[in-house]
Structure formats: C-alpha cells, structure tokens
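User: Look at the shape:
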Amino acid sequence: MSQKKNLLVPYITVFLSSGFIMTLELVASRLIARFLGSSLYTWTAVIGIVLTGITIGNYLGGRLADKYNPKKTLTILFFISSITSVFVVVLNNMVGNWEFLDYLDLIVRIFVHVTIIFIVPSTFLGMIGPVVAKMALDQGMATGKTVGRIYAWGTAGSIFGTFLTGYYLIATFGTVEIIWSLSAMMLIMSLYYGISFKFSYVWLVFLLSGIFLSSSSQSWATNFAVSCYLKAPKKDSIIYEDETPYCYVFVEQESKEPDTRKFLQDTLIHSKVNMDDKDNFLYFYGRIYRSVMEFISEEKESLSALCIGGGGYVFPAYMERRWPGSQIDVAEIDPGVTKAAKMAFGLSEESSINTIQRDARNIVDDLYRDKMAGKQVQPYDFILGDAINSFTVPFQLTTHEFNGKVKELLDDDGVYMFNMIDVFLVGEFLGAVIHTLQQTFDHVYVLMDYKMIDFLWDRQTFVVVCSKKPIDISAIIAKNYRSDPCWILSQEQLEFLEQKGKHLTLTDNYAPVDNLLSKVYRLQKINELASAMYINAVNFMKNSEFDRSIEYYRYMMEMNPDTTVMALNNIATILVSLGDYNKAVKTFQDAIEYNRSFGYIYEQSRVYLNLGVTLLNLQRQAEARTNFNEVIFQTDKILKDNFYSPNTHNLKAQALVYLGLYDKAEEHYKRGMELKPDDFLRMFETVDLLRRVGNNDLAKSLVQYNIDILTREDNAKAAEKFVIYLNKITKK
C-alpha cells in the first residue's frame, strides 16, 4: 500500500505537467493573435512548435533521468519552466513589435514568432515526463505497468488541461493571468521537490512582484510593467476591452468631438461609428450596403435579413431604425462581441435584433435542411456578410456548397452581399471567391472604394454583391455617388482577378484561403513602407527638391514593384518640369510598357496624357495625337463600366481639348464637375488648359458652371473659391 501511495506523487506530477503543456499551447494561440491573427498557419505553428519542444524535452529528459537524482532534477526543471513561462508574455510583447519580421513571408514570420516564444518552455516541460517515469520505476513496481500508468496519467492531464483551458480558464481569467498562474503552480512544484533550493524563493519574490505590477491599476506600476514587457502598452483611448472565448475585442475612441469609435477584434478594425450620427456610415462597405438596400427596398415597410457576423452591430442597428418591425437575424458566435457592442458601441439593450450565438455555417445549414425537408422557412430579402477579414477567414463561408445554400435561402429578388479584404494586383483570394460565386449566382458584382483606384497595390476592402436577377448597380451608384463614391469592377477586371485566382472553385473539401492570402500579409508592411516613401517623394517634389523626390520614388519601386507605374509617371513629370523632355518621354513609355508586360491594363490614361503633352513640347505632334487618342480609348473603356468617375471624365476632357474637340471636352468636363463640383484642383487642370490654348471664353463659362452648381447646393464656401478664381482670370 505504501508503495502505491509513493507512486501517486509521480502520477499527479506527470498529470499536472502534461496539463501545463496543453494550457500553454492553447494560450499560445490567443497571445499571438493580437499580432498575427488566428488562422490555419498560426495553429499549425503553435501545435508543431510545442510538439517539437516536447520531443526534444522527452529526449533530453531521458538522458537526465539516467544521470541525476529525479527529485533534484524535477526541482530544477519546474523552476526553469516557471521562469520561461513568464518569459512567454515578455517575449510575445517584444517579438510582436520587431519590424524586421514584417518583411518575412507570412508562414516564416509566424514560425519564427512562435518558435522564439514557445520552444524553450515546451522543451523544459517535455523533460519532466521521462524524469517522473524514472522516479516511478525506482519504486520497484513492474516496468510495463508503471510506464503505462505514467503515460495514462500524462494523457489524462493533457485532456484535462485542454478542456479546462478552452472551456473555462481563458473566458474567465484571460491569457496573461493564466500564464502567471501556471508559473506560480510550477514554482510550487519546484518548492515541493526541493525546499532547500534557495533560488526558488528568490524567484518567488520576483514572481509575486511581476503579478502585482501586471495587475495593478496604478500608473507607476503599469508604466514599469510596460517598460519590462510584462504588459502590452494600453492606449488611453481604449474605452472597452475584453478577452472572449474567441478573440480579444476592444473599442477605441478615435475622437471625442464628434464621438467617433472603432470596433476591433484581434488585429482588425471591424467597424466605425459616430455615436452622435449613427446613420452616417464611416466605412466604405457600410455605405454600399445601405445604397443597395435602400435602392431595392425603398418602398418596403419592413424586410428580412440575415447578418453573418455582428462586428460592431452598426448595420443591423441601422436596419432596425430604418425598417422598424423587420426580421433581423445576426449570426454571431461570440457573445463577447454582442456585449461589447451594447457596452460601448451604441447597440441598445432593448434592441429587437435576434442574435443567434452559433457558427453562421451551422445556422445556414440548418435553415437549408429545414427548407429541403419541406418546412416553412421565410426567405431573406438580404443576407449580409461581415465575417471575413484579411488574415482570419472562416473558409466554410466561402465555398461553393455554402453559396448554394445561401442562394436557396434568398427571396427571388434577394441579394447576398459581403465584404472582404485583398490586394487587387495580388487578387488570388478575391479571384477565387469571384470564380466560386459565379458557379452559383447569375449576377456577381464587385465594388471598391473610388479613392483606392490609384492604389491597386495596397490592401483594400471589396464589396461583393450577388443576386439571382440583374441589379442596376450603375443606377445605384448614380443615385448615391456623392455619399458613396465607388468603383464597379469591369468584366475585364473580373477576368483578370479570376486568372490571379487560377480559376479555383473553393469547396468544403478544398479551400486553401490562408495560402491565397499569404502574399497579402507579406505586402501589408511593405506597402506601409512604400506609402511612407511616396509621401516623402511628394513632399520633396512640392519643395522643388527633385533629385530627392526621384530618389524616394525609386525606393518605392524597389520596396513594392506594383507601384512602378505610378512612380515612373511621377518621375517623368518631374523630368518634364526640369526640361528633360527626351528622358521624360522614355520614362513615360517605360511606365506604359511595364504595365502592359504585367498583364493587366488598369487606368493609365494620365500616363498617356502626360506623354502626349511632353511630345507636343518636342514638336512631335503626330505622336502626341496618337497618345491623346489613346487617352480617349482608355477612358471610354473605363466609363463604359464606371460612368460616374469624375477623374476619368476630366482626363478625357483634357485629351479632347488637346485634340481641339471643345464641344465634347465641355460635355465631359461638366459631367465630371456635376459628380464632384467642389473639386477645385480638377477644375483648374482643365480650365487652365483651355486658357493656355486660347479658349478663354469656354474657360470662364465652365468656372461659372461650377459656381452655379455650388450655389444651388448651398455650398457657399466652395463657391467663393471659384468666384475668386473667376474674377482673377476675368481681369487678365
């Protein structure tokens, strides 16, 4: 009996150490999510690195067990494990801010991050099992039975640690608190096996101090903890935060007047809201949702909608206000998101919105199953998606099978809309999504923010609109252009994206969404740096430091080759201002050729226009006319799909002026200014050109046209600016 009692100690020891490892593994994925998101790649790295550490630890632990006294060895192992567990928090806060890691490929970045943080503690915890097994075998029991029980208790500890952490600890205490608790328990185990080990008591003092500093709300303690990387720095602007079972959710106040807030989950901003004007959507996709919905349902008193993902509940709350009495279902698996929206993002506690706290795929599957079984299922007028972000993509919501079920749940006039993030010039994920949707829906439209048309190399939000019947998207944009300026992707652009996505159909069996988005992650930081280079180049150009400006444009091209066309166009423009026309012509031609060799001709009308003007300066009129005609050809292609593009109308108007076609130039100028009458810079470009070619009467007439529009719209401030300019050119 005494021998069995003696064996109980090693059984409990291996049970606890195995539980510690699994707790650490689950907490690991949550800790790194704030920096890397949560995806297949992060989970693969965490599981793989922890298993690697355990493997190395098992090997080394076996060597130690044969050479040293097990109890003394366990004292040291638990002691070191306690220290290295705390360093998980420290290293995560340090490594997460190492900028040089941003240049690595997504998989490599995650692998390096996870390895630095978790390989050491998992190795030392992995060493405990073999030492405990040796200690149990020293009791003289049968070898097979003893080893089998050690393995069984270890596995039981792993199971217990997994369920306890996943179902209770993370939601109750949060990840950092769990790490501190693990460290304390490991220290207790160290003290149990070696009371005389004096360094354990020294570490106890440091551990208690660290716990105090990390949990204290006093400013001096918080500042000290942040400086030691025991805590991540917290912004004063964060007005609500919580660690839910699914993510770290927080609400940050962007400005106080007006009270503008943003809603974040892990690394992504999901929504913004003006608390004083909640119907004024601050995010592009929200404005598009509203434009489509109001155009289609303007005369309806109520509607039915399913929102996939709650986000900040900004749009579901808008529908509730706009169409009272509507059936608004929100599939939001995370109760913490709903709580945050009510506590800090304006969602009323009395809201009639029906929140279903289950995975959206399960909800759609159940509704589809009920419909196929002949049960009464009310069709939805709209199904809206807000569950896909750049790095954490629920693949089950992107597949052909899911799309088919969504279509069945829609009314005949119903619309399925969702937003997603990609880089146009990468486009692998977006292209695969488009191709997959086209296998189900007869009509698929893709829209992007008009302001981003010149930054196709940068990450941006796309809105995908699907329907059984055709939708007059152009009419929707025409009606709402001032408040919802957007760009409708043409058929040519959609085909380009499908090629980028390799015409892949995403299915439940094969949907490699993480792989399709890996380039987007790598480009994110690169694009931030390229954008910084662009800002510097523009500032140097404004200050007439042309050599420095060209230098930074070249840096930008090296940083991100997708910016080459823009950079070369601006470099050539600088060369024109320096009088180096021949070199400028060559640079403009390089920009056009680069774009052509890239395989996609996006809006490069301005490059052709600038090239034509430069050729005029060289007295090469015939070549100049060829390029002006190319501007007409390019802009006609663009306006065919995006007639509501003021910039394109303006470029075409300038080309027509150079060709002497003033009547047509006037027509397109007026169309562009009707769309955006307060754009003084765009007006100046065309009017100044008319004055330079000697058509002063038309120039004055067009400025007056702008003044009349702005006066009718009660935009006195903008109108005054145009009046001053008109008086100036009239006097001349």
In short: The CA atoms of residues 47 and 334 lie 24 Å apart. The chain has three domains: 2-227, 280-511, 517-731. The longest strand covers residues 410-423. The two ends are 112 Å apart (CA to CA).
